[in-house]
Backbone:
């Protein structure tokens, strides 16, 4: 009575788990000289070379071509669990490998010394100036199976090779204005650097900074700093070959769209390749992951950041060994380098809900199967690197250090010491503009999900309590990540909020003698599981960049000093 076009998705569990083995080899060489030019001027000249090679072997893969061939020939039964025979598994299993090589060269020469001295200060005005040359090179060498996209278990990636260099001239200045006068200290500082990149889209750029420190009394110092910073795109961002990934995302043309099923969206879905009778149906996107293309872009420009910080350092004389540092920061980055529009989900959302123009360049990044409307191999959403509209973040960093002597020792050292350290961040704002000139701003503070990606908690800190008794140091560490909620208020996911996440670690260090120190410890002492999320996650049903997916682990190491 006719043919039915049928698509099948199946986990090929019979070939075993997908494992990857990495072997890294690194070496570096540094040669230089430093000394006096005159009684007051010093010079420093050096050349640095480093090379890293990462060899990667992947197992548990499936050959796409072999799988299609064996299924078509009737030698592999794909219906049901554990139905693939041993002969089928042997025919479709494949081992893949690749190598990543990076190389860095740096040559620098500088002079430094005093210039003159203010009568109100005991230290002279000092400077440093010099020149620098750097060369960066990188390669990614996949085997034929990986580069051709034949490997199902791991994402396809094209070869990468590229390099560039930069020539720089820089100068720094430190100006002590007042020292131990009518106030305790007043000091200014400044720096500037001109960089000439061999990259045509970057060329020559300036960076500079200026700041001041004021200590009205010895116990407290106020400080402020402004900095213009520039980051040129790296080798991977520029020359990276196209790689395929499967991030979690929602297709607005599928039945997963719970935000807007208006006629405008429907017509746009049809205009971008979805058959009219399939719009808003389950068949458009069978799972919560959508295939995207990622990789380099040789047309990238540099990132430009403006950073303001203001803060204070308090070391009260009436509480010896206590130091408190508080800094407020405000950072704005223009032309930030990231996957286009912030990733696959943002491209889809911007096209169908914000821009709503099939001819717009953002909508042109979406490529669908013309027969089914799906975004499945070889069709992708093109999310290769581009310059975003910008990133903005602000908040407060707090650091506290305190130590207290104890009048006893278990190691016959006479006494011991208790030390406490705390470093925390309160994030006031974290947001990004996905497209330059677009008014839409994605707020990430206290959020996670398909729009902003990795969780950005409002509060985050790490604290450490150490007991130092002669050659023995015992440490307990507490790592805290605050709660976050999903970034899409119009969609109800299985997990809408992730609670606060706390990890505890213990470590012991013992100085055997003046030349040998042995370290051992346990990370994630209580074997805390990561939060399991669902469709609004990054990968592995969670966010492995934020939460611990390994569990309790033990380590031991030794430091030998010659």
Residues:
């Amino acid at each position: 009575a006719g043919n039915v076009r049928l698509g099948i998705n199946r986990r090929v569990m019979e070939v075993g788990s997908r494992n990857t083995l990495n072997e890294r080899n690194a070496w570096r060489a540094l040669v230089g000289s430093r000394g006096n030019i005159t009684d007051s001027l010093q010079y420093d000249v050096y050349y640095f070379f480093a090379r890293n090679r990462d060899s990667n072997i992947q197992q548990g893969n499936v050959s796409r071509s072999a799988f299609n061939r064996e299924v078509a020939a009737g030698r592999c039964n794909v219906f049901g669990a554990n139905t693939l025979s041993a002969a089928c598994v042997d025919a479709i299993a494949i081992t893949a490998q690749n190598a990543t090589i990076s190389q860095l060269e740096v040559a620098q020469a500088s002079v430094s010394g005093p210039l003159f001295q203010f009568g109100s200060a005991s230290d002279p005005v000092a400077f440093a100036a010099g020149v620098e040359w750097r060369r960066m090179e990188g390669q990614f060498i996949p085997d034929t199976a990986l580069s051709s996209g034949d490997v199902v278990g791991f994402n396809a990636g094209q070869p990468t090779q590229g390099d560039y260099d930069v020539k720089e001239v820089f100068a720094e200045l430190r100006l002590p204005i007042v020292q131990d006068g009518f106030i305790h200290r007043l000091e200014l500082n400044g720096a500037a650097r001109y960089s000439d990149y061999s990259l045509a889209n970057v060329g020559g750029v300036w960076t500079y900074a200026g700041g001041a420190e004021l200590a009205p009394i010895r116990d407290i110092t106020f400080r402020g700093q402004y900095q213009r910073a520039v980051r040129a795109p790296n080798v991977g961002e520029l020359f990276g070959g196209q790689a395929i990934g499967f991030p979690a995302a929602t297709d607005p043309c599928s039945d997963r769209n719970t935000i807007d099923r208006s006629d405008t969206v429907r017509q746009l879905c049809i205009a971008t390749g979805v058959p009219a009778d399939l719009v808003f149906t389950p068949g458009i996107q069978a799972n919560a992951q959508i295939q995207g293309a990622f990789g380099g872009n040789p047309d990238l420009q540099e990132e430009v950041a403006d950073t303001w910080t203001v803060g204070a350092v308090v070391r009260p004389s009436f509480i010896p060994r206590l130091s408190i540092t508080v800094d407020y920061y405000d950072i704005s980055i223009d032309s930030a380098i990231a996957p286009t529009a912030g990733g696959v989900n943002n491209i889809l959302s911007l096209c169908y809900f914000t821009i709503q123009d099939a001819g717009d360049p953002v909508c042109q990044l979406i490529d669908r199967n013309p027969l089914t409307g799906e975004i499945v191999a070889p069709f992708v959403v093109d999310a290769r690197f581009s310059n975003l509209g910008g990133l903005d973040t602000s908040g407060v960093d707090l650091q506290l250090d305190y130590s207290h002597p104890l009048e006893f020792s278990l190691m016959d050292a006479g006494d011991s010491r208790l030390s406490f350290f705390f470093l925390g961040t309160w994030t006031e704002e974290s947001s990004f503009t996905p497209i330059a000139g677009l008014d839409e701003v994605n707020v990430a503070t206290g959020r996670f999900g398909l729009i902003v990606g990795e969780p950005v908690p409002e509060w985050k800190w790490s604290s450490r309590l150490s007991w130092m008794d002669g050659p023995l140091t015992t440490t307990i560490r507490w790592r805290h990540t605050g709660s976050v909620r999903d970034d899409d208020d119009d969609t109800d996911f299985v997990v809408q909020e992730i609670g606060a996440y706390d990890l505890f670690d213990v470590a012991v260090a013992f100085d055997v003698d003046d030349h040998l120190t042995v370290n051992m410890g346990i990370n994630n002492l209580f074997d805390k599981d990561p939060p399991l999320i669902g469709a609004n996650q990054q990968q592995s049903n969670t966010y492995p960049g934020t939460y611990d997916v390994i569990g309790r682990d033990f380590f031991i190491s030794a430091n030998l000093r010659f």
